[in-house]
Amino acid sequence: MRTRIDMKKVVIVGGGYVGFEVAQELDAYADVTLIEQREAFVQPPATIRALLDPALLDQIILPYDHLLKNGRVVRGRAVSVSQSEVRLQDGTAHPADFIILATGSSYAAPFKPAADSIAAFRKASSDVSAQLAMAKSVAIVGAGAVGTELAGEIAVAQPEKDITLISSDTALFPMYPAKLGAELKRKLERLGVSVVLGQRAQDLQRMDMPYAGSVTLTDGQVVAADLVFPVIGSKPNTSLVQTLPGVKSTPSGRVKTDKWMRPSTCPNVFIAGDIADVGDGMTIVAISRQNPWLIKTLKHALKGKPVEDLKPYSPWKKAPILVPLGPSIGNSWLFVTVGDWITRKMKGKELFIPKYRKAFGLTR
């Protein structure tokens, strides 16, 4: 029987949806080190509802203490990577036979932690929650999954508010069959949300967090609001992967890879998740396809099989999407458009909270 000292070393940077699961699944097959700058995982989809139910924060901030049985979680900020090691800001080097970079993306507060501090994230969420409770009118700029879900959560929990959801697209979720966007728009309007389509915000005062003010639209209309949420998408965190040789970025800011999710001339370095431009969107559903492939591929590679002899990664042709509007209603696309019951059962009711608490060794 092999001892851990005989095992190949796998270093994973980033403890988000890719990093924690891959680390956990490889823990019995390799000497795993997971490098993460924060002391806890935050479950982003549930941070939306936490603005309406602040007590939820204690359920969705998950410490890494019980994640791995054999390997280790190292708290630190990685600043460079080579074929043989990952180096941290404090000068510590972690040698590796295989490296996975999954540094994720940043988003406007309070939907993801803006920095290393979980305490700062808690305060940001609490502050916005208090502002939201006092606001009589809310404008949400950006009608992707976060903006649409936010509009629905507020409308269900605080129906007395005047809510405007603004999108530069002429339909909600235009990349999906028209029925999905049409059904979501109809349900939002039934909840009292004003859905403004085909209009771009001209004068957002800030992009990093909500603020009180007004929004001027392309047609000159001014939407005044006690609280404006800028919700216009994620920004990939690619500074670490850019330290590798031969890296090429796409206009979206993500990084190109080969067929095996490798971004550079280093054959043992892989990337995944929001930073990887492999044909998937920046969604958790994309991770649900990438992670199993990555885990299986690395298990074979750990046994000495050449990566080039293994099956390449194949992205979603069109990834499923789940869009709850509060705990009970919503629509999803699971290769067909489905409604309230399936959306509620799959995501809306519990937001995957029990699943991730179990993964981190915690009870409900």
UniProtKB/TrEMBL annotation:
GO molecular function: electron-transferring-flavoprotein dehydrogenase activity; flavin adenine dinucleotide binding
Keyword presence, Cytoplasm: no
Keywords: FAD, Flavoprotein, Oxidoreductase
Pfam families associated with the record: Pyr_redox_2 (PF07992)
GO CC terms: cytoplasm
Ranges where the FAD/NAD(P)-binding domain occurs: 8-44, 82-278
Family, as annotated: Belongs to the FAD-dependent oxidoreductase family.
The protein, known as: N-acyl homoserine lactone synthase
Organism: Phaeobacter gallaeciensis
Taxonomy of the source species: Bacteria, Pseudomonadati, Pseudomonadota, Alphaproteobacteria, Rhodobacterales
